[in-house]
Amino acid sequence: MNILSQLEEPNVSLLAGTALAVLAVGGLTMRSTKSKNAPAKPRKIHKPLTTLPILGNSLDAIRTAERFHDWLLEESLRVKHEPWSFKIIGEEETLILTSPEMIEEVTSAQFEKFIKGRYQIDLTSSFFGMGVVSADGERWYHQRKTVVRFFSAKVLDAFMRHSVNKNIHRVYSIMDDTVAKNDSIDLKRMFHDFTVETFAEMGLGVELNCLGAEKVHPFQEGLEAAGKVVSLRFRRPEWAWKLQSWLNFGEEAVLTSNMKTVRKWLHEVVAQAVQSCIDKKKSGETTSQVGKSIIELFMDHSEDDLAGLSQEDLAEFVLTLIVGARDTTADALTWFFHLLGKHPEVEKKIREEMATQLGDVVNDKDVYLTTEHTKHLVYMEAALKEAMRMYPPIPFTFREAAEDAVICGDIFIRKGQKVVIPQYTLARSPIHWGPDADQFRPERWIDPETGRVKQESAYKFFNFSAGPRMCAGMSLAYLELRLLTANLLKRYRFEMDPNNDGSYDMAVTLYMHHPLMAKPIPLQ
Q1: Is 472 buried (19+), middle (13-18) or exposed (0-12) by CB count in 10 A?
Q2: For labelling, which of 29, 128, 183, 411 has a CA lying 20 to 30 Å from the CA of 53?
Q3: Facing residues of 397 across strands?
Q4: What is the similarity comment for this entry (predicted)?
Q5: 105-162 pLDDT, tens per residue?
Q6: At 65, is the secondary structure helix, strand, or coil?
Q7: Using CA atoms, how far apart are residues 287 and 290, in angstroms rounded to an integer?
Q8: Binning pLDDT at 50, 70 and 90, where does residue 284 land?
Q9: Strand spans (E) along 109-226
């Protein structure tokens, strides 16, 4: 898209100039790690061998800009998953934690001590707003409580199934048109269109008509452009992007402009949906339980139930839902089908399982597979989890120490220090997943004794986070993954573009760099 071409990667002059700017305004301030709470013998915190005086790892950030997740992996393997840190000039030191024990301490055992923090809120609030993703403290607690109530509602689950069913049949039409033209389709684009269509309908009760559209919806285009800018913020000195934002130029101007478009459209739709609910109540009209969106569920609750959630909060919540669910689910599907193209033996086993477990249903093109069918597809479930292990949709998680803390008995973390949990690194660790951790092997997820899918610790398989901030929409995400995968593989096989090298973009999610071009071949 043209709008994305406006974005520029950070360059050497920007970060090298940072050193001069910081020194010019008073020099670098060094914070002491001494604290009365520090252990007598704190564990060593390793640093990259390329760490430089003053510049720290600023040049590493430039050098690895397009493969940052792999750099984190390489450094973690070098120090055998002991804690290590890196520093960008002008920023606080960032601590990297890559063991399940450390992750459990940060996300559960000492949850109150590790918050989103000012740094991350500043980075993401212009994108997510102050919804449940960005909030801390009481605001987070009340919003989380409401979110969990919404996601646990049976009516929302029913609406999701109804919406997925409808949109899968739209996908069938797109695939059949592509087959008739003997053409290829970009599965990455289709998966993103599918998920934004489904979750926008679930959240707002509106159809964006993204699937099969020649032109990208302005709401969706704005989110993509804005998300790329937010990802750049994570790799730039805070003062640099804040200065850009204040002056409203460069990438930050792109972010501001696009989020203005996104929020204007979103607030108009939310206001219309709320007013429609009010009008329905006044007239005595009711909505079927299958057709209730989050907006309608919101309007059904009392003010006490909603714990102070305003219409503005509702808009932020719906935005969080759409942004989070759209990208993470679509990226998971994209990497899964990419891996199937590289591993035809896995696709063959999935089809064999479908034939064995589902019988004649597999050969009837008019039968839509439901959750009653997919619950029998153990190997397919294992393959989906294995793809998400290797390519976690959220590649790393940030926290900030709200106070001095000691984890695992001897790892001291000072107040204000940034902590990163890199899911991409955790997932590819031979220490945690065995010597073949870098291999796509769904069998690792199947218990040889029970034949069922293993339930790994959330601190090891960290894709949906863990502890009090565990993803509230996990069940709905899995529902969509299973249904779309099973129904696509039931009707088509795909000849994948062999030129796709599987590289990723540095974005908020693990976004595939190239289009995932595929030629659909009907099976019936």
Answers
A1: buried
A2: 411
A3: 421
A4: Belongs to the cytochrome P450 family.
A5: 999 999 999 998 888 888 888 887 665 555 556 665 566 666 666 666 565 667 777 8
A6: coil
A7: 8
A8: confident
A9: 114-115, 185-186
CA distance 228 to 8: 10
Would you say 296 and 287 are in contact if contact means Cβ atoms under 8 Å apart?
A: yes
- Both tokens assigned to 507: 């974005």
Nearest to 443 by CA among 383, 377, 511, 513: 383
C-alpha span between 409 and 518 (Å, rounded): 51
> Is 456's pLDDT higher than 60?
yes
Determine if residue 408 is labeled as part of a ligand binding site: no
**Residue 303 backbone phi and psi in degrees, to 5:** -65, -35
Say if residues 300 and 158 touch (Cβ distance below 8 Å). no
CA-closest candidate to residue 206, choices 197, 215, 214: 197
CB 396 within 8 A of CB 422: yes
pLDDT at 202 over 70: yes
Paired strand residues for 95: 85, 419
DSSP β-ladder status, 510-512 and 418-421: unpaired
Domain ranges of the chain: 46-522
Tally the residues of the chain.
524
Q: Determine the Cα–Cα distance for residues 242 and 246; give it in Å rounded to an integer.
A: 6
In Å, how far are 31, 249, 349 from 363, measured between CA atoms?
Answer: 67, 56, 16
pTM of the model: 0.86
Assigned architecture for domain 46-522: Orthogonal Bundle (1.10)
Higher pLDDT, 287 or 461: 461
Answer positive or negative: Cα dihedral of 368, 374, 379, 385: positive
Return the higher-pLDDT residue of 30 and 414: 414
Residue pair 72/234 in contact by the 8 Å Cβ criterion: no
Distance CA 370, CA 372 (A): 5
CA distance linking residue 71 with residue 76, whole number of Å: 8
pLDDT at residue 12 is higher than 60: no
DSSP 440-481: --GGGGB-TTT-SBP---TTTS-TT--GGGS-TTHHHHHHHH
